[in-house]
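Give me the fold.
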Amino acid sequence: MEKLFKKHHFFYFIALGILPTASPAHSMADVFLARQCKNGLVKVIIGDITKSDADVLVTTANNRLAGREGIDAKIHTKAGASLREACDNIAVERRKDNLQPCPVGTAVVTDSFELEAKKLLHVVGPDCRRPTQDESRRSLLKKAYEAMFEKLADLDEVQLVATPPLSMDVFAYPHREGARMTMEIVLGWMDTSEDIGVKEFQIITQEMNWINNLRTVYRESEDQFAGKDITREYR
């Protein structure tokens, strides 16, 4: 079964024009896209984000910090029971003030516990299964990324950040629109003149429908995105 998966995975990359090669940190075949920006490198990587050893690993949390769905559930499982306790403690303190643990468009930081990353950043994007959030999804997605960037600025020595594309998992954000917005927001932030400290920003996903939509968006609008494409260096 594993050999069959690898075979199909190989031919998928061939269809995209990406030839697999090897790398110590990540298989070079996993780098789907790379752009050099003023502050550093942005990569889109096809892979398992729970294995990332980034300075900050981002998880796509819900407003209860429950860790029960999608990528967030996988990250909570790998982090271990101590993460569940930490999130419960945040929820208890917030509810003393009649507040949600982490409303949409906000973010909180915890230790990473059993994960390889140094810190875990919980960011709540719009849940498009909810009509009220779907209607304002564009502004809420932007707000979620802004909350992420604000938290990153408050942390010390953050050079490598790894995140799934926010809201593109179980929260069901439309992938074509979401692929374009994700790249516009992240590349714009990494291409600012201000030194933000982050030298590499990795968007890591195994959601192939999102990757396919990103491929289409990138072909249509590559020259409109900030930074310079250097994907060929990873082929």
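The chain has one domain: 16-234.
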